[in-house]
Amino acid sequence: MKTIYFDNNATTPIAPEVLDEMLPYLRELYGNPSSMHTFGGQLHRKIEEARSRVAGLLGAEPEEIIFTSCGTESDNTALMSAVESVPHKKHIITSRVEHPAVLNFCKYLARKGYRVTYLPVSKQGQLNGDELVKVLDEDTAVVSLMYANNESGVVFPVAELGEMLKERGILFHTDAVQAVGKIPIDLKKLPVDMLSLSGHKLHAPKGVGALYVRKGARFHPYIIGGHQEHGRRAGTENVASIIALGKACELAGDKLSKEVIYLKGLRDKLENALLKSCPDARINGDVNSRLPNTTNISFEYVEGEAILLRLNEFGICASSGSACTSGSLEPSHVLRAMGVPATLIHGSIRFSLSRYNTEAEVDKVIEIMPPVIKELRQLSPFGRERIKK
Ligand code: PLP
Q1: Domain limits for position 78
Q2: Which atom of ligand 1 is nearest to the CA of 148?
Q3: Does residue 193 share a domain with residue 69?
Q4: CATH number for the domain harbouring residue 337
Q5: Together in a domain, 239 and 160
Q6: How many A from CA of 113 to the centre of ligand 1?
Q7: Over the stretch 191-243, which tens digit does the pLDDT of each residue have?
Q8: Does the beta carbon of 69 lie inside 6 Å of ligand 1?
Q9: Quick check: CB of 72 below 6 Å from ligand 1?
Q10: Which of 71, 225, 228, 369, by CA, is between 20 and 30 Å from 347?
C-alpha cells in the first residue's frame, strides 16, 4: 500500500536534491570546519554558502543567520537572549496559541519571576493588534508571536504587529517555523528583530534550524562554549545538515511562487469536497489568512483519533486536534483558545500538504473520508441520531 502523507506540518520528507547535497559530508568530507587544514577550510566555505542560501530565502544578510539544532532551540535562544539583553525589564508578551517551544519556555521564565501575558485569539484563531497595544508597558522586554500556526495554519499580521513594536522600541521575535518555505518572507521589509526556522519543516533533515537576528540587535548566546557561529552558538557544527538546510532554502526560494498556487489548489479541492460530502463539518481557522498547505476540519460526532486510525488503515497520514497524554485525550490548546467546543476539538483533523503530494492523492482522500466518517458516526449514539434526522 502506498502511503499518502498529509502530515507535513509535523515533518517533511527530505528533498532528493537536499539529500544528494548533504551525503558527501556524511561520507568522505567528515572534517571539522574549525580545523586549520584544507579539509576543514572546505567545510567552512560550504557552511558560509549555506548561510547565504538561508539568508537569501528570507531577504536577510548572511551574518544575521545563526545555525541551531532545531526550531525549539531557536525559540528558546531568542527568548533567553531578549530577556538577558534588557535585564531590568520583566514582562514578556506572547499568545495563547504558540508552540510549546515558546509557551513552555515562557512558563519557565514565569517560574524565574517574569510576568507573562498570553494574548487571546479570535474564533478564527486570528490575533488583533489592538489587544497587543493594550498590554504593552514600560516593563515589556520582548514580544514573541508566531508567524503561522502549526495546527490551524492561521498567519498572523506580523508586518503590522512589527510596526507597532518598532515604533515603541520593543524587541520582536517571531516563530516562523511553519511559515518559512511556505509563504514569502522578506526581512528587508519586515520589522522583526528575531525569527526562528526549522530544517525538517522544509524538506531538510531533523536536527538543524536557524535563528535570524537583525544586525544591530543585542544578542546573548544560549549555548556557551567554543567560538563557533562567531561565538553566538557554541558546539561543533552539524555540517551535513547545515549544508542540507542551505540547499532546502535555495530550493524553497526557487519553487515558492508556483508551490503556493499548487498547494492552495490541492488544499482547497480537498477542503471543499470534504465540506460538501461530510455533513456537520467545519473549518477551524481564518480562511482569509492561512498557510496554503494546511486545513484543519472538525467533524462533529466523531473522535479524531478514530478517524486517524481508520485513515491509517488506508495508508493515509494526518493528525488530530487532541493528543494522547497519559492515556487520556488532551484537547488542543490552539483550538481551545479559539473557543472551539470540546466535541468539535475531539473531532478535528489536520491535513497538511507538501510539494510531493498529488491531485490523485487528494482524490483518494476525498473518496475515503465520507464513508469513514459515516461509519464512525454509526458507532456513536449522537452520531446515529444525527444520521437519522
Ligand atoms: N514552532 C512551531 C510553530 C512548530 O510547528 C514547531 C514544530 O512542530 C516548532 C516550533 C519546533 O520545531 P523543532 O521540531 O524543529 O524543534
Answers
A1: 16-252
A2: 3
A3: yes
A4: 3.90.1150.10
A5: yes
A6: 26
A7: 999 999 999 999 999 999 999 999 999 999 999 999 999 999 999 999 999 99
A8: no
A9: yes
A10: 71
